[in-house]
Amino acid sequence: MLDLADATLLQTSCRIGSRRIMASDALGIPVRNPATGACIASVPRLGAAATRDAVVAAEVALPDWRARSAKQRSVLLHRWYELVIATQEDLARILTAEQGKPLAEARGEIAYAASFIEWFAEEGKRLDGQVLQHPQPDQRILVLRQPVGVTAAITPWNFPAAMITRKVAPALAAGCTMVLKPASQTPLTALALAELASRAGIPDGVLNVVTGSAAEIGDELANNPVVRKLSFTGSTAVGRTLMAKCAGTIKKLSLELGGNAPFIVFDDADLDAAVAGLMQAKFRNAGQTCVCANRIYVQDAVYERFAEELARAMQALQLGNGMDAGITQGPLIDEAAVRKVEEHIADALAQGAQLRVGGQRHALGGTFFQPTLLTGVNAGMLIAREETFGPVAPLFRFQDETEVIRQANASEFGLAAYFYSRDFARIFRVAEALESGMVGVNTGLISNEVGPFGGIKQSGLGREGSRFGIDEYVELKYLCLGGL
Ligand code: ADP
Q: Is the CB of 234 under 6 A from ligand 1?
């Protein structure tokens, strides 16, 4: 069993207003530890009716929550932040147990998740309006920034804590209430966070959590006219479906979807730094992040050296149960994830790529997969077009800057991009030319609460985190004051 300092953080009940809904054994969703296959707990398998109830609960809670001052909401969010930090170790253990990432990464994610709560507790206090000059002398224009109202969030399994707080914190800070559907693979982190929100004094109904059928809950959230806004993080395919469904009620949308990040190493780069950056951008969370480097373009003159140094760094990765000390790569989330990785490798090899490291399921069994390095990869291969979402590093060779920018931009996705160079002019040229919402220049880590996170093209709509992230939960209202 999971060893926690506070065992009551292992919550298995959904939260709809003041109601707590347990999983009846037969109907629950088992939550499995991907490192061992063991069932940790079961959560309720709810559907449309429970989701409607949750929307009603959020609607009932809205007037009081919206009417509080930003400062009053901020005090509660700060308290929530403090509780998350105080229980970081337990939350990290729950996260690793259901998601598989190494405990050190899970601790980092909890700190990252908490940072959004702290950040938006502050930003909520700065939702200021404006007074504008009317074209007529006897009139004035006031612009108010008001909460959108009842909102909904659907979140993925790869960051079971941070993807939640990045949506919930700005929504609550702005005065919105929310219905959250976490991924079925990782609901326990979500339920623990909601429990802490409740302990912090955030009233029942302000944050409701429903677990269960993605299609049923998603449909209800998209179709329900009371829900004014939906924020989704997940695959582009599901994002597209939700966007179409939200058309029925002209809902506001934030979508943080798939990526296919290029990672470019120019021949003037600091190669050691580029290898270190790639290790972070590629192997964090076993390659299961939407900003993971997916296509690695290395300039001809440094290609071989880079491949050798990368191979060496990859061989130092320690695979195993994320709960164990020293582990740097956990299992993949499920069997389907492993099959996709295998498919991408097989396709690349069939088309002439060379296998330099790994390539196989790991001897540990289950969904453990060897860190894999492929060289001689080209644009015709599946791995160039699709997000692999696994520990595979494919190296493409390029000759010049214009060519690599064209290749990097030849994707319907535009989330993150990375490049390494020490040439001042090139840094500006390339950063401005890359078609992506975020660019890491000489760094492989771009996520924090201060920078605006989000994509262009089919990687999504809107920005999360940063001073811009709260705008997603705010409407502008214009008051025209006459007869002055
Ligand atoms: P991933 O590849 O990260 O699992 P998904 O887009 O499948 O991405 O899942 C992300 C979230 O979207 C999860 O909470 C999942 O349950 C939910 N989801 C999956 N399919 C649908 C759907 N048809 N409608 C609404 N939500 C969905």
A: yes
Compute the distance from residue 143 Cα to the ligand 1 centre, in Å.
37
Which tokens is 158 given?
Answer: 């790869």
Residue pair 348/378 in contact by the 8 Å Cβ criterion: no
- How far is residue 194's CA from residue 128's CA, in Å, rounded to a whole number? 28
* Angstrom distance (rounded) from CA 41 to CA 97: 11
Chain centre to alpha carbon of residue 14:
22
In b/e form, how buried is each residue of 448-459, taking b as 16+ CB within 10 angstroms?
ebeeebbbebbb
The alpha carbon torsion through 236, 245, 50, 26 (nearest 10 deg) reads -50
Residue pLDDT, tens place only, 86-140: 999 999 999 999 999 999 999 999 999 999 999 999 999 999 999 999 999 999 9
Whether pTM exceeds 0.90:
yes
Ligand 1 and 155: CB distance under 6 A = yes
Side by side, which strands form the sheet with 150-154?
A: 19-21, 14-16, 207-209, 177-181, 150-154, 229-233, 252-256, 460-461
Mode of pairing for the β-strands spanning 413-414 and 456-457:
antiparallel
Is the C-beta atom of 443 inside 6 A of ligand 1?
no
Ramachandran quadrant class, 331 (left: phi over 0; alpha: psi -120 to 50; beta: rest):
beta
For tokens 């007869």, name the residue: 483
d(CA 406, CA 305): 24
- List residues bridging with 152 in a β-sheet: 179, 230
Of the CA atoms within 13 Å of residue 45, those in its CB half-sphere come to: 11
What number is the ipTM of this complex? 0.92
Q: Where are the beta strands (DSSP E) in 119-184?
A: 130-133, 140-147, 150-154, 177-181
Mean pLDDT of 160-174: 98
Nearest to 125 by CA among 79, 85, 171, 72: 72
Query: Which band of pLDDT confidence, cut at 50, 70 and 90, is reported for residue 26?
Result: low
